[in-house]
UniProtKB/TrEMBL annotation:
It holds the Pfam family Methyltransf_11. InterPro entries: Methyltransf_11 (IPR013216), SAM-dependent_MTases_sf (IPR029063). One of its GO terms (molecular function) is S-adenosylmethionine-dependent methyltransferase activity. SUPFAM superfamilies: S-adenosyl-L-methionine-dependent methyltransferases (SSF53335), Trm112p-like (SSF158997). This is Methyltransferase type 11 domain-containing protein. It comes from the Bacteria. Residues 187-242 form the Methyltransferase type domain. It comes from Bradyrhizobium manausense.
Length: 344
């Protein structure tokens, strides 16, 4: 049986290229390190490595702790959802707003999809953070012929960008359950999504491998001093990075104290100036664009009460909020949602 080199794939810790032998594991070229395959997906997490080398197998280490703490829950849900999608063979069983949005985009003719990211009212689907989402899409688009990577999350964005003309889409997530759902959706859409189990702090891709790196609400779950340089490393010169994240502004602190978080998650730790510092060091050009200083938390409370604006109206409200805050010194920086936009 012959080793087959996997394009762009590297050991997440040593960054040595990986090859595949059969259907059981992927190996470094010198066979000193191996990683398992599950359902054909490489499990590229440091603690999963099979090696005689000195190695961190402690799943409680800071870069691994959150992923392993949540893994059983999310993998169980993901496997059930993937099986249901596989059985039904239809998008009707997909209960994700983001994935349903992907299916709506898939019904459009190619000439309309390839105009991504315009019009913004077509592409954004987050009625709370629509302004940040639009900022990100405008920063990374157009994507025709490009290689795109999403780090963390369900894989909505690489699927969306594949429909918009990207040449390759990759999802890197610590949850194999999420990867399995994304692959089933890709199968229905007939787009070439690749999924890897990994984390932002140890990305299993070669240097300068991708044109676009997107993160949707996951940077604040990472050790930014490690993960952000990793995401910069995999981008080609001129490559684009974009992320939608919560910012620890006064509105965030007061809003969560009174009304609770948008999603209950004990690991949620919003971005601060200190945690954002590696972002500005890692990229040639970087900016954090703040949104929603006045209206974001009222919008979250309204949504919890069952009142939900359409995406175009939600973006209009946020842009009006921003325009008002632009007239008040320092008010715009109080926005508790940010678009992190950078160019390598």
């Amino acid at each position: 049986m012959t080793d087959i080199k996997i394009e762009g794939l590297v050991c997440p810790v040593t960054k040595m290229p990986l090859t595949i032998l059969g259907d059981q594991a992927v190996f470094t070229a010198d066979r000193s390190i191996a990683y398992p395959l599950q359902d054909g997906i490489p499990i590229l997490l440091g603690p999963e490595a099979i090696t005689d080398k000195s190695w961190i197998h402690d799943t409680r280490a800071p870069q691994y702790a959150e992923a392993y703490a949540e893994m059983e829950f999310y993998n169980s849900i993901g496997r059930k959802r993937a099986e249901q999608v596989r059985t039904d063979g239809s998008p009707k069983s997909v209960d994700s707003i983001g994935m349903q949005h992907v299916f709506r985009i898939a019904t459009l003719p190619p000439e309309q999809r390839y105009r991504f990211p315009e019009p913004s009212t077509l592409w954004a689907c987050d009625n709370i953070d629509a302004a940040s989402e639009t900022d990100c899409y405008r920063h990374i688009g157009p994507v025709i012929g490009k290689r795109v990577v999403q780090v963390g999350g369900s894989g909505t964005v690489p699927l969306l960008l594949l429909l918009a003309g990207a040449a390759e889409g990759i999802l890197i997530t610590p949850m194999i359950g999420e990867a399995l759902v994304a692959l089933e959706i890709a199968r229905l859409l007939k787009v070439p999504l690749r999924c890897l189990v990994g984390i932002g702090e140890e990305i299993p891709l070669a240097d300068q491998y991708t044109d676009v790196c997107f993160v949707g609400g996951c940077v604040h779950h990472m050790r930014t001093e490690i993960a952000i340089p990793e995401m910069a490393r995999i981008l080609r010169p001129g490559g684009k990075f974009a992320a939608i994240e919560p910012w620890k502004a006064p509105g965030y602190t007061i809003g969560t104290a009174i009304f609770g978080k948008r999603e209950a998650n004990p690991f949620c730790s919003p971005i601060t100036e200190e945690r954002a510092a590696p972002f500005f060091r890692a990229f040639a050009s970087a900016d954090c664009v703040h949104h929603g200083a006045i209206t974001r938390y009222p919008a979250i409370v309204a949504q919890k009460a069952g009142f939900k604006l359409s995406v175009p109206k939600a973006e209009w409200v946020t842009r009006a909020d921003d325009a008002i805050c632009n007239c008040i010194p320092f008010a715009r920086k109080m926005g508790s949602a940010i678009a992190m936009l950078a160019t390598k």
